[in-house]
Design brief:
Helix content is 47%, strand content 0%. It has helices at residues 5-9, 28-35, 37-44, 52-64, 69-76, 81-84, 92-107. Helix 4 (52-64) packs antiparallel against helix 5 (69-76). The radius of gyration is 27 Å and the shape is elongated. The termini are far apart.
Amino acid sequence: MVASRPLAVGHDPDARLFTGPRGGRITTAVLRDATHWDKVVVRLGLEHLRRHDLRHTGLTWLADAGVPLHVLRLIAGHGSLLTTQPYLHPSKRASTEAGAALSAHLTAGRETAGPKVVPETAPVRHLRIVR
């Protein structure tokens, strides 16, 4: 559905990817009413969730899918990457995989993990003392 939208809006760089029922912006009120948000979160027992949390989830999923940060910034409509960054929340799985990747990198080619003590060598003299 998302992939077909750019074809539908044509070459207008200011066209909205999705529009509200009257062709304009999708407001929070339109989103709340269209999704029955208030009823859904009560039924799920998750009244603490906010519609804005969907923005965090969507941007995080896009980042996890490999979308570059500069593209996420544009999708979010932010002027700065510093504004986009707080929207990205790595999952426990992503954090675990990052730790495993670091461990693999640090132990590659070593018999045991961890830093190695380099034996001290005698200083090399480049000048010969002549008497």
